Amino acid sequence: AEQVAELYKKQRGLCPWCGCSLSSNYEKDHRHAVSRGGDNSILNILLLCKPCNNRKWARDEIEWANMNGKLC
Q1: CB 16 within 8 A of CB 1
Q2: What pTM, to 2 d.p., does this model score?
Q3: Partner of 52 for a Cys bridge, out of 4, 17, 41, 43, CB 3.0 to 4.6 A?
Protein backbone atom coordinates (compact mmCIF):
# COMPACT_ATOMS: atom_id res chain seq x y z
CA ALA A 1 0.00 0.00 0.00
CA GLU A 2 2.87 2.37 0.80
CA GLN A 3 4.49 1.76 -2.60
CA VAL A 4 1.19 2.36 -4.39
CA ALA A 5 0.72 5.63 -2.48
CA GLU A 6 4.23 6.70 -3.54
CA LEU A 7 3.47 5.77 -7.16
CA TYR A 8 0.24 7.82 -7.00
CA LYS A 9 2.29 10.76 -5.77
CA LYS A 10 4.92 10.30 -8.53
CA GLN A 11 2.15 10.23 -11.13
CA ARG A 12 0.75 13.40 -9.53
CA GLY A 13 -2.63 11.69 -9.26
CA LEU A 14 -2.98 11.55 -13.05
CA CYS A 15 -3.51 8.73 -15.51
CA PRO A 16 -0.30 8.58 -17.58
CA TRP A 17 -2.23 7.69 -20.77
CA CYS A 18 -5.09 10.19 -20.89
CA GLY A 19 -4.07 12.69 -18.20
CA CYS A 20 -7.35 12.56 -16.27
CA SER A 21 -7.39 12.85 -12.50
CA LEU A 22 -7.31 9.49 -10.76
CA SER A 23 -8.65 10.82 -7.43
CA SER A 24 -9.29 7.59 -5.56
CA ASN A 25 -10.71 5.77 -8.58
CA TYR A 26 -7.78 4.02 -10.22
CA GLU A 27 -6.70 0.53 -11.19
CA LYS A 28 -3.27 -1.04 -10.90
CA ASP A 29 -2.00 -2.01 -14.34
CA HIS A 30 0.99 -4.13 -15.25
CA ARG A 31 3.28 -2.29 -17.66
CA HIS A 32 4.30 -5.69 -18.99
CA ALA A 33 1.38 -8.10 -18.56
CA VAL A 34 1.84 -11.01 -16.17
CA SER A 35 0.36 -13.24 -18.88
CA ARG A 36 3.32 -12.19 -21.05
CA GLY A 37 6.02 -12.71 -18.46
CA GLY A 38 5.69 -9.55 -16.37
CA ASP A 39 5.81 -9.61 -12.59
CA ASN A 40 3.99 -7.94 -9.71
CA SER A 41 6.86 -5.69 -8.62
CA ILE A 42 6.09 -2.01 -8.15
CA LEU A 43 8.44 -1.23 -11.07
CA ASN A 44 5.99 -3.06 -13.35
CA ILE A 45 2.90 -1.22 -12.08
CA LEU A 46 1.19 1.94 -13.32
CA LEU A 47 -1.96 3.46 -11.93
CA LEU A 48 -4.51 3.99 -14.70
CA CYS A 49 -8.06 5.24 -14.88
CA LYS A 50 -10.58 2.47 -15.43
CA PRO A 51 -11.30 3.34 -19.12
CA CYS A 52 -7.59 3.33 -20.05
CA ASN A 53 -6.97 0.10 -18.15
CA ASN A 54 -9.93 -1.56 -19.89
CA ARG A 55 -8.72 -0.46 -23.33
CA LYS A 56 -5.09 -1.42 -22.70
CA TRP A 57 -6.08 -4.91 -21.51
CA ALA A 58 -3.04 -7.28 -21.55
CA ARG A 59 -0.95 -5.26 -24.00
CA ASP A 60 2.45 -4.12 -22.83
CA GLU A 61 3.05 -0.39 -22.68
CA ILE A 62 5.11 -0.22 -25.90
CA GLU A 63 2.42 -2.02 -27.90
CA TRP A 64 -0.27 0.18 -26.32
CA ALA A 65 1.70 3.38 -26.99
CA ASN A 66 2.18 2.40 -30.65
CA MET A 67 -1.54 1.73 -31.02
CA ASN A 68 -2.35 5.17 -29.63
CA GLY A 69 0.16 7.23 -31.59
CA LYS A 70 2.41 7.88 -28.61
CA LEU A 71 5.47 6.34 -30.34
CA CYS A 72 6.67 6.67 -33.92
Answers
A1: no
A2: 0.84
A3: 17
